[in-house]
Amino acid sequence: MTKKEFRTTQLYRLKQAQFTTKKESLALTQLLLAHPTFKSAKSIGITYSGALEVETSLIIQAAWRKGKRVYLPKTLPNRQMAFIEHTAKDELVLSSFGVPEPRYEERRVNNEVDLMIVPGIGFATDSHYRIGFGGGYYDRFLAHYPGQTVALVPTAMQFATAEWQIEPFDIPIQELILA
Ligand SMILES: Nc1nc2c(c(=O)[nH]1)N(C=O)[C@@H](CNc1ccc(C(=O)N[C@@H](CCC(=O)O)C(=O)O)cc1)CN2
Ligand SMILES: Nc1ncnc2c1ncn2[C@@H]1O[C@H](COP(=O)(O)OP(=O)(O)OP(=O)(O)O)[C@@H](O)[C@H]1O
């Protein structure tokens, strides 16, 4: 299947499964918090979640409580992203994608966080390939990212093998945490 064809059917599936995904978010959050890579990370990159995704606000709060620094992506022209530090007091703006994003501030950029929690809409549990909403933001970003990558994968996003086409620029995720 082309990525475009896969996205069409997968977004429909995720809409049907959205309450199950939200329920699975709590268990996935607990698995992440117990994970050695998360425990040892001093800085994490994460997004605020959309309606079809694993809920991330509890992860962000837990990371702050444990003294970690939290970075959110600011999307930039040419499908680039910069990760900007997020603290409890700063205000966010709704991006065109529909999730809260920070304002760009050069002195708060860190594109080399210890751990990147990567969103997506489908993950292959054999090869760890992912497919996202189609912006190509993470493929571009991960090509130059030196840290650890992890994804939280609810049942509706799990595929034994990739049913979509894999392209040369696709980058597998190091660790999948499965609901
Ligand atoms: N919660 C969350 N935040 C995230 C992502 C994500 O997957 N999840 N992203 C993961 O990458 C980035 C935003 N991704 C985006 C993906 C597509 C479009 C976009 O412009 N879509 C067009 C149609 C796509 C196209 O160009 O063909 C549109 O909506 O009109 C924008 C942002 C950063 N933040
Ligand atoms: N490393 C890269 N360099 C240049 N272009 C890229 C790179 N990675 C992806 N692209 C471009 O981005 C487009 C979208 O890629 P793809 O369909 O894999 O997005 P995605 O992984 O689903 O989205 P996202 O990473 O934003 O969640 C591709 O058609 C490709 O042209």
Automatic annotation (TrEMBL):
It catalyses: (6S)-5-formyl-5,6,7,8-tetrahydrofolate + ATP = (6R)-5,10-methenyltetrahydrofolate + ADP + phosphate. Substrate binds at residue 53. Keywords: ATP-binding, Ligase, Magnesium, Metal-binding, Nucleotide-binding. One of its GO terms (biological process) is tetrahydrofolate interconversion. The keyword Nucleotide-binding applies. It comes from Amylolactobacillus amylotrophicus DSM 20534. Belongs to the 5-formyltetrahydrofolate cyclo-ligase family. This is 5-formyltetrahydrofolate cyclo-ligase. SUPFAM superfamilies: NagB/RpiA/CoA transferase-like. Its cofactor is Mg(2+). ATP binds at residues 3-7, 130-138. One of its GO terms (molecular function) is 5-formyltetrahydrofolate cyclo-ligase activity. InterPro entries: FTHF_cligase (IPR002698), FTHF_cligase-like_sf (IPR024185), NagB/RpiA_transferase-like (IPR037171). Its EC number is 6.3.3.2. It holds the Pfam family 5-FTHF_cyc-lig. NCBIfam families: MTHFS_bact.
